[in-house]
Input
Amino acid sequence: MFKERRTLGEAMSEEVRNVIIIGSGPAGYTAGLYSARAMLEPLMFAGYMSGGQLMLTSDIENFPGYPQGIGGPEMMMQLREQAERFGLEVHDKNVERVDVSERPFKVWVEGEEFRAQTLIICTGAEAIWLGAEGEDAQKGRGISTCATCDGAFFRDEEIIVVGGGDSAMEEATFLTRFASKVTIIHRRDVFRASKVMYDRAAEHPKIEIKPFRSVKKWLSDEKGLTGALLEDPRDGSTEEIACTGAFIAIGHKPITGFLEGQLETDDSGYLLHHEHTMTSVPGVFAAGDVVDTRYRQAITAAGMGCSAAIDAERWLEDQH
Ligand SMILES: Cc1cc2nc3c(=O)[nH]c(=O)nc-3n(C[C@H](O)[C@H](O)[C@H](O)COP(=O)(O)OP(=O)(O)OC[C@H]3O[C@@H](n4cnc5c(N)ncnc54)[C@H](O)[C@@H]3O)c2cc1C
Output
């Protein structure tokens, strides 16, 4: 979909780049825009999903500057175009591994080695999906993993939320602002959610909690999602539930595997900031969902990408 300016071979050289940005979501492109405007001639590896998570969604109504809303892919193309205008060099390639044990840092792409004084890691976090039958066709339509992003599309509709942790309780409670009814589906009767979050959901008049249920199959017609076939894992019995929206809240997985444990993370694998946006290794910065266990929004990722680029620029200056 996107055009690459130079070939990968042309991009590779003996030179040590000022900045290599890994990942091309809102965090990556904003880091690219700022570091390009700061004349750092950044190189970006956009990764397996060029444009990031928003390539999966049709309507974005909460990114400032688009009063009528905008399609996710369209917005990401505009972000890329804006950063490229100032000289960001983008290659739609995946980074296989990095070595941050000494400077310049090394980055391997398709077996070739690239070197840079600073890295900005913006590889995001993947929502964990259920993988139930019929799910792929409804992803980003009737089925979502982000209530803040998509809840408002389901006004006066019946929604189900799948999960038993704090996120599921929080999403369900938030969704009561829009939905006529919210049903929480959880495969056990033991909930990981804190008592206060569970009680808030359980006591809400619009919320029903159904324990011992898992989604066996999503039901849909030509207009979209119509319900789910639920299974009781204790005896395999099934029942149908009607819903036009579903939110899966069973967790996120930060994309940090290619770092092979070289940077400090929390127990779930999210990168940790040590000083502003700098990670445990000086000169390596991180921004967006790959560090964010709380907000996970395009605007917060973009804001952090800006911070990381400014931090990288100042850090480079301090080295001279
Ligand atoms: C269906 C859906 C709808 C959403 N709707 C909204 C919304 O309406 N409003 C909102 O604010 N937020 C929304 N979000 C959340 C938003 O998409 C994220 O918060 C945001 O995209 C995070 O940006 P990011 O830059 O941190 O990472 P991401 O957008 O996740 O991008 C990560 C990037 O890293 C790259 N990458 C990963 N591994 C590698 C590697 N090894 N080498 C190179 N590159 C790599 C990927 O290719 C990708 O480009 C939605 C999310 C989803 C899934």
Residues 129-248 form a domain with the FAD/NAD(P)-binding domain fold (CATH 3.50.50.60).
